[in-house]
Amino acid sequence: MVDNTENFEELSFEEMLNQYAPKQVQRGEIVEAEIISKERDYSYLDIKGATEGIVRTEEIAEFEVGDIIRVAITEDSDDEGHIRVSRRAVVQEEAVVKLEAALENKEVVSGTIVRKVNGGYIVEVMAHSAFMPNSLSQIRKDSTENVIGLEVDVIIKDIKTERNRKKILVSRRDVVAMVEAEAFAKLSENQIVEVEVKSVLKFGLSVRVENVLGFIHISEISWGKVDDLNTLYKAGDKIKAQIITLDAEKKSLKLSIKQLSQDPWATAAEKYTVDTTVEGEVTKIVKFGAFVKLEDGIEGLVHISDFSWNNKKINLGEFISAGDKVQVRILDLNSEDKKLKLGIKQLSVDPWAIIDEKFKEGDTATGTIVDTKPYGVFVEVEEGIDAFIHTSDFAWAKLENKLSVGDKVEFKILAIDKENKKIKGGIKQLTKSPWEILSEEVGVGSIVTKKISSIADFGIFIDMGHGLDGMIHISQVSKDFVKDLKEKFEVGQEVTAEVIEISAADQKVKLSIKKIELDADKNEDAELLKKYGMTE
């Protein structure tokens, strides 16, 4: 064993003090220290060869007791002999090199948004506070999202030193642009991808394909018509879609869902042929008809004129409702223009095609009044066949009772126009006309005694019965000249006259008083001649 006592004794007191006393440390100096305890707010360090240091526990949260760490001296010893140190200052110093390298190499670094300030956000990056302007934040001004504490990837845009402090400018927008550019480079047109629905809009879906935003227009959702996207999708849905246009420069990505399946119109002509009957579903009713879907993407129109053979205006609501399953006849199909014309009335025979087998002119028919006009009524004889009766054919005399919709009527068919699908009818023709009756009662040469119904300047009218008047012209009222008829005759006066003309076709009766008077004179002359063989 070596004896060092002699050597020890030879050392001066000052030399021994310098050898064994703690070494002095300077403010700003970076030293190594061992963590000897961790409390809630502060932790204590053994600064080798010096003294105890004290540091905020939050600065060394990732370390454990016994770990050796590097810290910076920030303050001299306090009253208890503890030296204030900072781990954050070391980290910041070490980070400056990394930040400058990231700036030069345009590297992406991670940071945390710590607070909102005027014009942007403060982001903590490698223990440094950096400023991220609103324009570079990728955070909408109207966003209600709480971004404080949000971890974000940023690019270092600039580093400046002012008053021994680093002023750092960062951008999140540049990172998003880089990520989008990389993502765009992996995509290609016609590629099938999985997308996530970000929002459902009235005119389409806003979606995300990994890190790229895209859009699916409502017309690209389905080969069929889509009215409300909210009934089909919601935010967060994952769906398959095909890329149809891709423009990395404009950052435009458009996709389609319907392109994943074949256009049903491509095979429509093979599945559906004209004049065949198929079943479909009513999707919408409009004022000019109804749309009927045969399958997804194949929809046709039943025009209002193709619901019934009857030409009168119909209420579609009485025939069908949206959602109804109906049988329809295919009238026309154009795959190129994607047009399909359908009919319902064509499921039955056009009654006008066989009208000759059912009705003939002169036949008596019955029906129900379905429409009234100031000039007549329309009577439904059977489904698809209406007859029209003019007001002049209601009755021979003025009709006291008004005809109304729903009334049952009997009438005679006066004319049939098959080409124009029209039937003319008459009610009064079921009975003899007053003129026919009068013609049976009187004839030319008949002598009648009737009352005067009215007097005109040119003659007098007498009541012939059955609602008819006969006329005695002023030249036939007397064998003598009569200047003023009202001086010789009055209304209600009975006169005897001879029928000199009657025509049921022309509805005309002419009479003469003069003829009776002249005949009477002739008879008197004949009697005198017979009796006396002479005349006056």
From TrEMBL:
Taxonomy, superkingdom: Bacteria
SMART domains per the UniProt record, alphabetical: S1
Keywords associated with the record: Ribonucleoprotein, Ribosomal protein
S1 motif domain segment(s): 28-88, 106-173, 190-258, 275-345, 362-428, 445-514
Pfam families: S1
Alphabetical list of InterPro entries matching this protein: NA-bd_OB-fold (IPR012340), Ribos_protein_bS1-like (IPR050437), Ribosomal_protein_S1-like (IPR035104), S1_domain (IPR003029)
Family: Belongs to the bacterial ribosomal protein bS1 family.
Protein name: S1 RNA-binding domain-containing protein
